[in-house]
C-alpha cells in the first residue's frame, strides 16, 4: 500500500520537523519538509504531495502568496492546502472563507484528523473497506 504524501512548508525547521514526526510516526504518512518559501513550487512539483501544509507568516513569500501560486499552477492546483498558523486561535481554526486552518501550537490529533480528511488515497481506501 502506498503512503499518502504530505509536504510541510514552514520557515522554522524545528516546527516543520515536529509536524513531520507527528505525521510520519503517528499518522503513517510519507512526509517531506521545505523551509525555503521560494523553493516550494519546485519541491511540490518534484514530490507530488497529496496535501500541502503551509505556514502563513514567512519571510520573503507568505503562505497566502504561495497558496495563490499553487492554485495557478496546472500541475499543483488540485492539491489541497492547509494553512498552519499562529495568527489564529484554536477556536478560530477549521474551514474559513474556503480555506482550511490549523492553529499553532499544533494539536497533533487535529492535525492528523485534518490531513486524513484530505488525503485522496485514504478516502479511497475507506470507501473500499
How is this structure best described in words?
This protein is α/β, with parallel strands linked by helices. It has 5 helices and 6 strands; from the N terminus they run E-H-E-H-E-H-E-E-E-H-H. The protein has helices at residues 13-26, 40-47, 63-72, 108-118, 120-128, and strands spanning 5-9, 30-34, 51-55, 81-85, 94-96, 99-103. Strand 5 (94-96) and strand 6 (99-103) form a beta hairpin. The protein is globular and about 30 Å long. The protein starts with a strand and ends with a helix. The model is unreliable at 123-129 (pLDDT under 50).
Gyration radius over CA:
14 Å
Termini distance?
14 Å
Taking pLDDT < 50 over at least 5 consecutive residues as the criterion, the unreliable ranges are 123-129
Beta-strand residue fraction = 15-25%
Question: How much helical structure, as a percent, in the residues?
Answer: 40-55%
Structural class: alpha/beta
Order of the strands making up the biggest sheet: 2-1-3-4-6-5
Overall geometric form: globular
